Fold AB hydrolase-1 domain-containing protein.
Amino acid sequence: MVTIRSLLFWALVYTYCGLCACLELLKLLWSLGTKPGKTFQWLIRENPPGCLSDPSLGTHCYVRIKDSGLRFHYVAAGERGKPLMLLLHGFPEFWYSWRHQMREFKSEYRVVALDLRGYGESDAPVQKENYKLDCLITDIKDILESLGYSKCVLIGHDWGGMIAWLAAICYPEMVTKLIVINFPHPSVFTEYILQQPSQMMKSASYYFFQMPWFPELTLTINDFKALKNLFTSQSSGIGEKGCRLTAEDIEAYLYVFSQPGALTGPINHYRNLFSCLPLQHHEVTMPTLLLWGERDPFMDVEMAEITRIYVKNQFRLTILSEASHWLQQDQPEIVNKLIWTFLKEESRKKE
């Protein structure tokens, strides 16, 4: 029975992977037919836009991890010695997606926005095996220690949310409070992605990313049109009531992901996901805040409420009806206010 279940599981994964690949191939052929001259033309941006060196966001720093030998890039704001707030971005993002939070929380925290393994200026190992969940979780522990801290407020968005959940489960002693944006508890997500047709369709990219090299190619078509559309289109981008990305913001993303080989590391994060399933139903033991943009086209909102059963401590869920998947960029003022309220709650109780 175990063998049969395993065969059925991988048959489902690869069948859906093939369907997603066929759809992307049709899009590629359509582009070649309508815009043959532009399909495979894209710019490699040599000079970063000025917003990436904005001093109000903090200082660019690097840390090398002794065990793995990898060097990680991060931007730090706020005085050394203050409590640490560690920020983990999603896909396709990098440290800059936390710019609104870095300006906001540096008054009381040492705010560190990390480029995850394989992203931006952080090292990107070649083999996909180097992006297994165990490696990504260990990165967070090692970086925390290398920064000279034993505890932090841990905040993650999207795939960074997955890593934040797992880091809090594996190393509960190092997370004082957990804040996750638009990503449910990993056990909820992995059950949904395999069992619910609606979530399977919304998570099509997770299946498509199992393929070698082709996903990277499709994201570069027409000068990274798919990447731009993720943040700006009506279906997946920040809505009219949100804080729209400026042209310079979009150029910052294009600068990072248009560098040679810059997409392989980020996509490799997903290429080990199904080999790690099923995840154990681990419980979270620290106070947890889950923020959710209801207009998220990639995640069923029902998963947010189910997450409650896995948190064996204070759990606060806030769903914002007019917000998108890119919540901390879409509604930064509301998100910052909700985070402040959550962070201050325990101190108020003691008073």
User: Anything to note?
Assistant: Residues 296 and 325 are 4 Å apart (CA to CA).
